[in-house]
Design goal:
InterPro entries: D-iso_2-hydroxyacid_DH_PdxB, D-isomer_2_OHA_DH_cat_dom, D-isomer_DH_CS, D-isomer_DH_NAD-bd, NAD(P)-bd_dom_sf
Keywords: NAD, Oxidoreductase
Domain D-isomer specific 2-hydroxyacid dehydrogenase NAD-binding: 106-295
Domain D-isomer specific 2-hydroxyacid dehydrogenase catalytic: 7-314
Distance between the termini: 12 Å
Low-confidence stretches: none
Protein name: 3-phosphoglycerate dehydrogenase
Strand order of the largest sheet: 10-7-6-11-12-13-14
Length: 320
């Protein structure tokens, strides 16, 4: 049986599948040729990340497809319910990348707090001639310890962010439309497990109280933003924002306006409204720290994702 990992799979995941008798193809097939490739090569399982979509048209065109796997959390690039109605198993790997995304969020928060994202742009070109001026420019950073971090969406990734933030001495509050588990546990080396019950509040209260806000919600079904100009207006002046969830959950034009006015002191984006071609206004703004959708892209997470996908495929094909 053939598995097409169209957006790649870790070597450990591939080895696991091959040891179970599957043939794993990792060559990327262009979207417009994908249906023909699946049908002509008797592909039974398709694994994707964010580059490949599995919409109704592809599902209808590939009647022998048994499994669609998403390496990562969000499945907005797959028509999930339609596929399931057609008898196709659809699965993702929500637990595998939580720590990696959380670490990137914290990296961006530290970078925003001390302006390192901008200093790294300026130093190579102006550090030699304008060192004293740059030292003055970046001398008004803040400490994260003691600040309030509001986490919007308190699933696995939001909870992982809370672990790191609590470890840094931040006060953490959360908001979620669901009745989520708010006890966060983490291990301190040499001490043991620490359990903290994170305060859950309404979104409006979180927005008003937070010194920094990190978003961890899926793309909204109606395409609306969770954080728009009205929500930004309620925030503290000088707030920091991070979006490592999905492009568009923070309204980009509203964010750019708030950054330019100084109401938002700085923001970090790992995801964008127009991926893979973000707007030039976003890419060029001097108060934005940017990364190219790499939240889950660590070696450790990729190994976990690949192995979890392999387990899911083997379980499905064994019972099919």
């Amino acid at each position: 049986m053939i598995v097409l990992a169209n957006d790649g799979i870790s070597p450990s995941g591939k080895q696991k599948l091959e040891a179970a008798g599957f043939k794993v193809v990792t060559d990327h097939v262009p979207q417009e040729k994908l249906a023909d490739y699946i049908n002509n090569n008797d592909v039974v399982a398709l694994c994707v990340r964010s580059a490949t979509t599995a919409r109704k048209e592809l599902i209808d065109a590939c009647p022998n497809l048994k499994f669609i796997g998403r390496g990562g959390v969000g499945m907005d690039n797959i028509d999930v319910e339609y596929a399931r109605d057609k008898g196709i198993t659809v699965a993702n790997t929500p637990a595998s990348s939580s720590q990696s995304v959380a670490e990137l969020v914290m990296a961006h928060l530290f970078s925003l707090a001390r302006f390192t994202y901008d200093a790294n742009r300026e130093m190579p070109t102006n550090g030699h001639s304008d060192f004293k001026a740059l030292k003055k420019k970046y001398a008004k950073g803040i400490e994260l310890r003691g600040k309030t971090l509001g986490i919007v969406g308190f699933g696995r990734i939001g909870q992982a962010v809370a672990q790191y933030a609590l470890g840094c001495g931040m006060h953490v509050i959360c908001a979620d439309i669901y009745d989520v588990y708010t006890k966060v546990s983490f291990v301190i080396h040499g001490h043991g497990e620490v359990v903290v019950d994170v305060e859950k509040v309404e979104l409006d209260e979180l927005i008003r109280r937070s010194d920094a806000i990190s978003i961890h919600v899926p793309k909204q079904a109606d395409g609306s933003s969770v954080i728009d100009s009205k929500e930004i207006a309620k925030m503290k002046k000088g707030v920091l924002l991070v979006n490592a969830a999905r492009g568009g959950v923070i309204d980009e034009p509203a964010l750019l306006s708030a950054l330019s006015s100084g109401h938002v002191a700085g923001a970090a984006l790992d995801v964008f409204e127009n991926e893979p071609t973000p707007s030039e206004g976003v890419l060029s703004h001097d108060k934005l720290a940017l990364s190219p959708h790499i939240g889950a892209a660590t070696l450790e997470a990729q190994d976990r994702i690949g192995e979890e996908l392999a387990d899911l495929i083997m379980a499905e094909m064994t019972t099919a």
